[in-house]
Hints:
Helix content: 40-55%
Amino acid sequence: xxxxxxxxxxxxxxxxxxxxxxxxxxxxxxxxxxxxxxxxxxxxxxxxxxxxxxxxxxxxxxxxxxxxxxxxxxxxxxxxxxxxxxxxxxxxxxxxxxxxxxxxxxxxxxxxxxxxxxxxxxxxxxxxxxxxxxxxxxxxxxxxxxxxxxxxxxxxxxxxxxxxxxxxxxxxxxxxxxxxxxxxxxxxxxxxxxxxxxxxxxxxxxxxxxxxxxxxxxxxxxxxxxxxxxxxxxxxxxxxxxxxxxxxxxxxxxxxxxxxxxxxxxxxxxxxxxxxxxxxxxxxxxxxxxxxxxxxxxxxxxxxxxxxxxxxxxxxxxxxxxxxxxxxxxxxxxxxxxxxxxxxxxxxxxx
Length: 351
């Protein structure tokens, strides 16, 4: 089973979700290496892109091996969103994404207060105007990531999906919770199924996919075309490899060993240094280390030590020493990777 968005064909239905503060280029590279069929950037300000702000443009940078890749924009003004789409379309071919996604699900207050993210779910005509304007301005497919609605009293996912299709969207990803639910409770997969039945464009499901079996079950129960994996990939890019093996062959692959997890963490650190510089890498890597080592022996102690490191060299030395300590004591057995609710995951998910 493959997934197709416009002219972009993906080799499996399992893709990496856009994750604010997490899905930077190193994270995306590791996900692709371990079987993610496609990736999306963390959300990028359409206004900043139109203004040509360097920091905003930096968020759009990616390596060739990350393709197929989408760049996710947030904003609320149809004209500015269309101009941002033109900016992305006019990038050199090597820097141009494969599609453009619109964030219509972020529940964070500073985003919704700007009438962007999940706030757009309260203004369906504006959704239509944004997608219509962007589709007219873009040669690249335009997609959207949404939630079920603002709250339990305004669940309008089917209406929104129909509007997206009518306005020219090439696909829609649905996080099966409302904005009010954020990341709590159980995702309402039946609403993904209802939306899938209402539109002909590809529908991707998102929410409560924690294991390889969950991914296959979401495809079966909802009829969706793809599965967007978010928090389950924190510290565990191998989740995509496991999901594909289970879905394609019914095979359950072993969880990564402690050595594999720590070696991936060290490689992640190196990639982050190369893409963002040593100072930023030393700070940003702390949360990733917490996810890579979650559940391993003495991980609380190591996490505390990592949080007090002041350089990438110090962090790398600490992780290498920890790996040696585990090997010396014969503790290199696999352990459950970070779960979807662990290590502050909610603070970083984009919706």
